[in-house]
Design a protein that fits this description.
Blueprint: H1 6-9, E1 26-28, H2 39-50, H3 62-72, E2 79-82, H4 85-96, E3 102-107, H5 112-119, E4 123-128, H6 137-146, E5 147-153, H7 165-169, E6 177-181, E7 205-210, E8 223-227, H8 229-238, H9 246-257, H10 259-282, E9 286-287, E10 294-298, H11 304-312, E11 316-323, E12 328-334, H12 338-354
Helix pairs in contact: 2-9, 3-9, 4-5, 4-8
Bound molecules: pyridoxal-5'-phosphate.
Length: 355
């Protein structure tokens, strides 16, 4: 007899991308930033490590929330830090969704939404995107109307495309909230500045951001939500008292204060993204126009799993993803340094030539 809750017992659990622990890999599979964090962040971590770590951190993360508030021109009461965006997604589910209530999200997109909805005992539904990754808003209308939360990554993963504000606002459920997961927001050609929160739709939207991607801090675990204060106050009741440690908060604050570092890295990544997309197309791939730090590439003839495996045998790791129920599979390739991307392109050219 299993003592585990049936809801937990019957799900597979989210499987994150491979994280090989030995060296020598060109790692282009989990959308990490290929560049290091700002030196000011490293200094802040060293300072924080010398501070009294025997004491708990500030449970309200005052300095961090102030820095986010200044960046986006909102009051600190609009900000909730968390142990990565994933924790804020968990907090949102636990704050807003009772067992049996409906959660919906685009499909294909970030599979974790489904796992979290399952764990919460929620009903959940996939809103299938068209083959060109656009929304069939009218087809989704009935589900959206009954949803408590609609969770939308923008830019989307694995496709990398970004939907415009009009489309995004049409996804707000009439009796619920839209969670806008902007994990990749800083890589867009024109990054969002939280303007939707200031619009008439603002009270129905929660935006989540992360330090894992644009700020090069995936190893640290820090993210934040921005929303009208009534949502933040409710979410604060649900979070662990000390969900973010003192070192992460100090690092995140320093990262926010060195915008130039992050913006320069995003600019380099956008340039490499354009080059990679063009070269992949020359090799015969179809590539979605990406606004993120990865591209979604499909080949009309070559099985994607084989391409993934052949690359892996050369210690080049990309993400093979498949969504069999909608007949979608392909390779999601993180934008690495120019040197890494050259290695990938050479290897792919060889593989495609040789068989
Ligand atoms: C769409 C999306 N949201 C959230 C996350 C998780 O972010 P974090 O590392 O802050 O938990 C990811 C990670 O890959 C992601 O792809």
């Amino acid at each position: 007899m299993s003592l585990v809750r049936p809801r937990v017992d019957c799900i597979e659990g989210y499987v994150p991308g491979e994280q090989p622990q030995d060296g020598g890999w060109v790692k282009l599979n989990t959308n990490e930033n290929p560049y290091p964090p700002s030196p000011q962040v490293v200094e802040a971590i060293e300072r924080a490590a010398r501070a009294p770590l025997n004491k708990y951190p500030d449970p309200l993360a005052t300095a961090f929330r102030r820095a986010v508030g200044e960046l986006f021109d909102v009051d600190p009461d609009w900000v909730l830090p968390a142990n990565g965006s994933d924790e804020n997604l968990t907090i949102l589910l636990r704050t807003y969704v009772d067992p049996g209530e409906l959660v919906s999200y685009p499909y294909p997109s970030y599979i974790l939404y489904e796992t979290l909805a399952d764990l919460q005992g929620a009903d959940h539904r996939r809103l299938t995107l068209r083959p060109d990754w656009s929304w069939d808003v009218e087809g989704a209308r009935e589900t959206i109307n009954h949803s408590k939360l609609v969770i939308v990554p923008n830019p989307n993963s694995p496709s990398g495309n970004r939907w415009d504000d009009t489309t995004i606002c049409s996804l707000i459920p009439p009796r619920g909230l839209l969670v806008l997961d902007e994990a990749y927001g800083d890589f867009a050609d024109e990054p969002h500045r939280m303007q939707l929160l200031q619009s008439e739709h603002g009270p129905r939207i929660v935006v989540t951001r992360t330090f894992s991607k644009s700020y090069s801090l995936a190893g640290l675990r820090l993210g934040f939500a921005v929303a009208h204060p009534e949502h933040i106050t409710a979410m604060r009741k649900v979070k662990d008292s000390y969900n973010c440690d003192a070192v992460a908060l100090a690092a995140g604050t320093a990262a926010l204060l060195d915008q130039q570092w992050m913006l320069d890295n995003c600019r380099k990544i956008r340039a490499t993204r354009a080059r990679l997309s063009e070269q992949l197309e020359r090799l015969g791939f179809d590539v979605v126009d990406s606004q993120a730090n990865f591209v979604w590439a499909t080949h009309p003839e070559r099985p994607h799993r084989e391409l993934y495996e052949q690359l892996k045998s050369q210690k080049i790791l990309v993400r093979f993803m498949q969504f069999p129920d909608v007949g979608v599979d392909g390779l999601r390739i993180t934008i690495g340094t120019d040197v890494e991307i050259d290695r990938l392109l050479e290897a792919l050219a060889d593989i495609l030539r040789s068989s």
